[in-house]
TrEMBL record:
Transmembrane segments: 280-300
Species lineage: Bacteria, Bacillati, Bacillota, Clostridia, Eubacteriales
Naturally occurring in which organism (per UniProt): Clostridium aminobutyricum
Protein's recorded name: Peptidoglycan DD-metalloendopeptidase family protein
Domain LysM positions: 459-503
InterPro entries hit by this protein: Cell_wall_metabolism_enzyme, Dup_hybrid_motif, G5_dom, LysM, LysM_dom_sf, M23ase_b-sheet_dom
Length: 718
């Protein structure tokens, strides 16, 4: 067994190491590779040297590499190969170290095998060591192979990167040369242009030369001037610094003298004070006593006059008498007026020393009463702003909110069928905290009235036929006195059709805009149908069938402003009853002559004679009274021309018609006039509606006949 191990050890020693074999093989490959590369380089150099010499190789003139570049690449490749060879040597040394360790381990095992008592164990251990050494060699070979492959990859990548960088750099150099050549050509072209210009105009060259010489002389002169100024400035600075040094030295000497003299005088004063100490103490005590006496008299004869924001309130002995109750006054006033009232001790309260002889001094209670009953006390309140303008001041934000709730409730309906989608102000309404005076805070009820009536609404009404001043006032919810005040030139007894009446009335400062969904019933207006009949004159009409409005149930979204409907959007509707059309008969018969016929007809049909022509109640009655309901048709007694139509004192609304030949008829106390002055009418045409206007005891038509201006008994002419 021992011989076997000896033979194995000898074989290992004489055998070439795997790493050595690999190194030799790689060396041979490197040598052959170098030879091939050398041949390739020699061929490439000869090709590059002959580059451009033959016409068929002209396309290679733009090739980026030169022989110098190729030589640099070969140098880099050699450096990379040397690095790889160095790496392989290091790996070889590591493998030799590993083999050496294995040999030492085998020698140690050989010695141990010679001992007979442990022969079996040593044999097994030797086999394991041999097996382990083979595995280690195989692993080393694999690692070396991987490292070589990795190194080759790194070298290839470096070569590729280097070649690519060189190519890009050469392209940049080529572009740079092209740009440089372009600039050089451009410069040469410009110089050629200039020389060509000056060759054509030699006098221009001379002028240019003179200008350049003049400019050069100016530059030289400027330079000399700057140099001279610099020297002068430097000399002045030197003189100033020397003067400053002398001044500092003189000041230091004077300061030394003053300090020396002061020290001497201080020493003399201290020695004199030591010698006259008792006399000095006595004089000082006298001075202190006199000052104390003066202070006592001053305090006894003077006091403090206190004021709030510049307003003098009284006199107190001490400032503390006022300052100590300021907080008490603030709390008491805030609780009493429900606002935050504050008094700034430093800003609001001021004091002034005054003589108090024969003047009343306030105690603490007097100060409290005077401050409590002031109305110009600073307070924090809330301002109500409408479109950015402050219109009122209230004590709290809650008060302002309650006022707005009350105003809104006046325009909100309590009916169960109304559902409000939104309730808001049309204007921009804000409540802001402000600093104000206590006396400016307003009563909530006054603020409410101001918000409801603080603005003025102005519009006009155009007088129509049958309008009266009282009816206009009633229609707009105003008083007659307000209408007269807004229209100073208005004559209530002489309203004319088309006259403009100004309506001025209070209006709210804020507009409550509500959007509601309501269900209600409304009338469906009936239509009017006309039928032509020959029994009536042209222009006359009569109702054959009275129209009847229908009814429908509507659900609508209604927008109101202060309760006035401004927009309606119908959401749904249901017809409850259909309307009945009104049938009107229109006359087609030719009109009679628009002039007097000489015979008069009664102006009112079916009327009752209530008063005759003649003396009545002690005075003359110039016509007859025909009693009839208000609105009865009043017709012309004969054809003619209207000479008057309007209001006439006790007669009320009157129509006068001239029938020619001095015959005039008069119709009084009408409720509505249907003709105007200048109209021509025929006999039987409706000219008015009976009424009770003017001085009248009941609804009737006063009919009067005049012949050449003299009233006659109408019964003699009817």
């Amino acid at each position: 067994m021992a011989k076997f191990f000896e033979k194995s050890l000898d074989k290992l020693k004489n055998r070439k190491r795997p790493s050595e074999e690999i190194a030799l093989q790689e060396q041979e490959e490197v040598t052959s590779t170098e030879v091939q590369q050398a041949n390739q380089r020699q061929s490439m150099i000869s090709d590059l040297e002959n580059l451009g010499r033959s016409p068929e190789n002209d396309f290679l003139k733009s090739f980026p590499k030169t022989p110098t570049q190729i030589a640099e690449e070969e140098a880099l490749a050699r450096v990379a190969q040397e690095e790889a060879a160095m790496r392989e040597k290091l790996e070889q040394l590591a493998a030799e170290e590993s083999t050496k360790k294995i040999a030492e381990e085998l020698d140690k095992q050989k010695k141990e095998v010679r001992e007979p008592e442990q022969s079996g164990k040593e044999n097994k251990r030797a086999h394991r060591v041999i097996g382990n050494s083979k595995a280690e060699k195989r692993a080393v070979r694999e690692i070396n192979s991987l490292e070589k492959q990795f190194a080759d990859f790194i070298i290839s990548f470096q070569d590729m990167t280097y070649i690519l960088g060189k190519s890009i750099l050469s392209e940049f150099v080529h572009v740079g040369d092209f740009v440089k050549t372009g600039f050089r050509n451009l410069r040469s072209h410009i110089f050629w242009k200039i020389e060509n210009y000056y060759s054509q105009y030699p006098e221009k060259r001379w002028e240019r030369h003179q200008k350049n010489r003049k400019l050069m002389r100016q530059l030289i002169q400027t330079k000399n001037t700057l140099i001279a100024k610099e020297k002068a400035t430097a000399a002045r600075m030197v003189h100033f610094i020397n003067h400053l040094d002398r001044t500092n030295e003189e000041l230091a000497d004077k300061t030394t003298v003053i300090v020396t003299v002061g020290n001497e005088k201080f020493n003399l004063a201290r020695e004199w004070a030591e010698l006259n100490k008792a006399k000095l103490l006595m004089h000082f005590a006298v001075v202190v006593a006199v000052v104390l006496c003066i202070a006592a008299v001053f305090n006894y004869t003077t006091a403090y006059e206190y004021a709030y924001n510049g307003r003098t309130l009284g006199i107190v002995e001490k400032q503390e008498d006022v300052l100590k109750i300021v907080d008490i006054v603030s709390r008491q006033l805030s609780k009493e007026h429900s606002v935050e009232i504050y008094i700034d001790r430093d800003r609001d309260i001021t004091f002034q020393r005054v003589l108090s002889l024969n003047k009343e001094i306030d105690n603490t209670e007097d100060v409290l009463n005077k401050l409590t009953y002031m109305k110009d006390m600073s307070a924090k309140a809330y301002g109500i702003y409408v479109n950015g303008i402050r219109v009122a001041i209230v004590d709290s934000k809650k008060t302002a909110g309650d006022l707005f709730d009350e105003i809104e409730s006046e325009y909100l309906s309590s009916a169960g069928t109304v559902q409000y989608e939104s309730v808001d102000f049309k204007e921009k309404v804000e409540i802001k905290q402000i600093d104000t005076k206590l006396g400016r805070i307003q009563n909530p009820e006054i603020v409410r009235q101001k918000l409801l009536t603080g603005a003025v609404s102005q519009q006009t009404h155009e007088v129509k036929s049958g309008d009266t001043l009282s009816g206009i006032a009633q229609a707009y919810g105003m008083k007659i006195s307000d209408l007269k005040e807004a229209n100073p030139t208005l004559n209530p007894e002489k309203l004319s059709i088309g006259q403009k009446i100004v309506l001025t009335k209070p209006a709210p400062l804020v507009t409550i805009k509500t959007v509601e969904v309501a269900t209600y019933r409304q009338e469906i207006p009936y239509s009017t149908e006309e039928q032509q009949v020959s029994t009536l004159y042209k222009g006359e009409s009569s109702v054959k069938v009275q129209g009847v409005n229908g009814e429908e149930q509507v659900t609508a979204r209604i927008t109101r402003e202060n309760g006035v409907q401004v927009n309606t959007e119908i959401l749904a509707s249901q017809i409850l009853s259909e309307p009945v059309a009104k049938v009107v008969l229109k006359g087609t018969k030719e009109l009679p002559p628009l002039q007097g016929t000489g015979s008069l007809k009664y102006p009112v049909s079916g009327a009752r004679l209530t008063s005759k022509f003649g003396t009545r109640w002690g005075r003359m009655h110039y016509g007859i009274d025909l009693a009839c309901p208000v609105g009865t048709a009043v017709r012309a007694a004969d054809g003619g021309t209207v000479t008057f139509a309007g209001y006439s004192g006790s007669y009320g609304y009157v129509v006068k018609i001239s029938h020619g030949g001095g015959v005039v008829t008069l119709y009084a106390h009408n409720s509505k006039l249907l003709v105007s002055k200048g109209d021509r009418v025929y006999q039987g045409q409706q000219i008015a509606k009976s009424g009770n206007t003017g001085r009248s005891t009941g609804p009737h038509c006063h009919f009067q006949v005049e012949i050449n201006g003299v009233p006659k008994n109408p019964l003699n002419y009817l």
